[in-house]
Design brief:
Strand content: 35-45%
CATH architecture: 2-Layer Sandwich
Structural class: alpha/beta
Helix content: 10-25%
Distance between the termini: 19 Å
CATH topology: STM4215-like
Largest sheet: 6 strands, mixed
Number of domains: 1
Shape: globular
Strand order of the largest sheet: 1-2-3-4-6-5
CATH class: Alpha Beta
CATH superfamily: Phage tail protein-like
Radius of gyration: 15 Å
Number of helices: 2
Number of strands: 6
């Protein structure tokens, strides 16, 4: 079965974050705890936050919004979780913001004309000393052909 446009978009975004050294993306297979570090969290597409990995980014694509017949807004929630300090968590959230907000042509190969962060929520430390940040980004672009 051929992957849907939304799955291809998520994979492209995961690769863009990997290319920007914001995480480690492995297109297939599972991650080990050793691959998940504060310096380079693993990047997962969709689903829930895994309990076995301390440092990760989870990309959750929400239902796109149509803007007329030709445009589409992708809504992607990026959940980042890091074991460390609140400063580590805020630094990663800011790095994601800088890499994506007010940029064009991200991910590569998709006709995205503008990206902006719509919202952000920081959570306090959990019982395993991990901090979580929810960021919602909008990607405006053309509908796929």
């Amino acid at each position: 079965m051929v992957d849907s446009y939304l799955v291809r978009f998520d994979r492209g975004l995961a690769q863009a974050l990997d290319d920007a050294s914001l995480g480690f993306y492995k297109p297939s297979g599972t991650y080990t705890a050793a691959e998940s570090t504060v310096e380079l969290p693993v990047i997962l597409i969709g689903g829930e936050m895994p309990t076995t990995l301390d440092n990760c980014l989870v990309l959750n694509q929400q239902e796109p919004i149509s803007e007329g017949r030709g445009d589409l807004i992708h809504r992607v929630q990026i959940i980042s979780r890091l074991k460390g300090t609140a400063i580590d968590s805020r630094n990663l959230a800011w790095a994601l913001f800088e890499a994506l907000d007010h940029k064009e042509r991200i991910p590569d190969g998709f006709d995205v004309s503008w990206v902006w962060r719509f919202s952000e929520l920081h959570l306090s430390r959990d019982s395993n000393d991990r901090y979580t940040v929810y960021q919602n980004f909008f990607f405006r672009g053309r509908r796929p052909l």
